[in-house]
Each structure stands twice: as C-alpha cells, then as structure tokens.
C-alpha cells in the first residue's frame, strides 16, 4: 500500500492541513453545488485523500469480509486501506478480534499473509508473540531485563458481525446508529444464511481511480449499456421511473415491471422482505436495500437468468428470488441470490488508486464441478468489474485535467448524489 501521511497537526488534522487549507476545504464543502460532481481536488489531492482516511475510513463502520472467509476460530484475514492494516480474526466466542497489524516492538507487520489460520500471532521480525486477543505474551532476548508486557499489547479496533457480514471501525467511539442499520438489513440477508456458505472465488482488482469515483460508478446504472454480460440478467432500467424511461427501453421497462410483480408475489408467499428501504444520506450508517427481479428465468446472473449453482442457500424455498441488492456507505455493495452471494468492498490505496475486492460465496456443501462451474459462476461479474475499472479510470484521468469542471448528475443518478451528499455531511462534521 502507498504510504500516507496522517501525522496530525496541532489541531488533530493530517499533516499538510494548515489553517488556510482547512478553511479552503470547509468552503469547498459548504458551497458544494447540489446535484453536481465534486470539485477536482476531492478526487486528486493527496492531502484531501489523507483527510478522507481520517474522517471517513478512520471513524465509520467499514465492511471488511464475510464470515465465510474466516469460518473457524483462529482463521483471519488482513485488511488494508490507506495507511491502516488490520487483522480480523475469528475468536473462540464466535465473534471477531480486530487488531492493528503493527508490532509494538518496532512497528513491523505482524501477519503478512492476506488470510490464514493462526494460534498466537508471531511477528516475523523479532518473534514478539501475541495472543489472539492481542496481549503480548513473549518478548525476550539474552541479557534483556524484564519489562511490563501488559503495556505493549497490539492496539485494538472495533468489530462486529451482522447477518454473516463483518464490519470494523477504528474510532474510539464508533457511530452508534449502525445497530439500527443492521436491524434494517438483517431480515433481508438472514434467510441466505451466510454462516453456511464458503468462498468459491475471490478477485482483487486495483483501479487507477479515487475511491469516491469507484463508489459513484457503482451507485448508478446510467452506464449499464457498457455491461453486455450483466445486461443479460440485470434490467438496464434500474434507477429509472415511468417519467424517465427513454423510448428505446419502454419494452424492457414493461418486462421489468411484470417480473417485479411476480417476484413480490412469491416474496409475500414465502414471508421474505422485498420493499425498498433507502436511507443513503439520511443516517450515518447509510443504506439502500431491496429485493429486485432479474431478467430471463429470474434466478441468477447468467445469460438466460438460470441458476449457476444447484444448491439453494440457507432455508430459501425457491431459486426464483431475483437479487437482494444492498448498498452500504462508505465502501460496500452486495448481491444475494438463491444460489450464491457476491460481496464487494472498495479499499482506498491512494488518492488515485483503489482496491476492489469481489468475493463469490456458495453453499458450504456445494461441490465445484458437480454443483457449479466456477467459470460460469464468476463470468458476469468478472467482466463487469473489468469494464467498471475502465470507466473509473477514464473519470480519474478527466478529474486530473486542468479543464475538468463539475458536471450535473442525471435523474437516474440520484444514488450518486446521495453518496456524495453523505460524504459531504460526514466531512463537514469532521472539519467543523
């Protein structure tokens, strides 16, 4: 990861933020033109990126992984964003320990693998050894005097599991409304029983673009003509209304409405929630969730809409359940289907670089080559991710141009506006 200077100034802001720079940032935030993209520095300025890492990724709940990635006690993943590196470890109580991956001796990374299984945590530099809770239990060398090991535990962060999804927060006092956000999404996700899934595949893509451009791109389907594989199963009218449907999509809109009515009938029959809940910028733990129809057979992300795994997830009664789609601020989105689940997380690296991690989950008893074909399972979103990478990088190149000027969001891009509005609110709260 690219080094980032978050050493605080006297006022507690990242180095590089003089009073003049802070005043300039406050003015940019306070005068932000509603319905338009951000000014270029928000996408390009390393100092503003540092502030993002402090104000957004250093204070709010961030999606880290699913329980399927750390299914047993001692299993861990390391999660890196900006200057931070965290160990997310499945503990003996069924929860997670979240530890800063920084040895208390001389700061070396304690665990260097992206995932694995461990008992105690041993730093590879001088073998300082920590318990799964982060307590220092071994640090000795010939001739050394004893010292108080209790003063040198790994620093901890907050972690919680909600409906099989793992979230972390670096703030001393995390935002308290995430509990209410979890109460919204748990009834939608719980029937898929993520704790009974396994990882079929994980893809890491580094996009040469600011993390906000990654999230903006995800929050609209205005560009979905550029996703031919996705268009086979995802209606390109997503985000549109009767008033905004262009003539060439009227037939598709009608088919979409009919498929949605059929899906809602089945959801009512099975007692599954499907209604749209949209609070992307009206709460700190911003969320949008719904269950939406898919084209074709309506089962999965395939060319004909048919299932890609023979195994139903959890206690779901039917493959024809479209997709449960969830967006969470600031860094994640999800698609939950009858046959598999896809999680997406954006982890900022620098002002112009972001890691996008996509993970495909299937039933834990599904057998590759028997119940699912891995290439078929992952094809649509592998291609879509590469296409989105190209779109984001075009926008980053444009934002770096001296001739960049803020442009208006279209009506179908209202979720982009909501994301930016959420971001601006959080930044205002931080800079005062």
TrEMBL record:
Keyword field contains Iron: yes
GO molecular function terms attached to this record: 2 iron, 2 sulfur cluster binding; iron ion binding; monooxygenase activity; oxidoreductase activity, acting on paired donors, with incorporation or reduction of molecular oxygen
Transmembrane regions listed in the UniProt entry: none
Protein's name in the database: Rieske 2Fe-2S family protein
Entry annotated with the keyword Metal-binding: yes
Cofactor: Fe cation
PROSITE patterns: RIESKE
Record-annotated Rieske domain positions: 62-168
SUPFAM superfamilies from the UniProt entry: Bet v1-like, ISP domain
Cross-referenced CDD domains: RHO_alpha_C_GbcA-like, Rieske_RO_Alpha_N
Keywords: 2Fe-2S, Iron, Iron-sulfur, Metal-binding, Oxidoreductase
Organism of derivation: Brevibacterium siliguriense
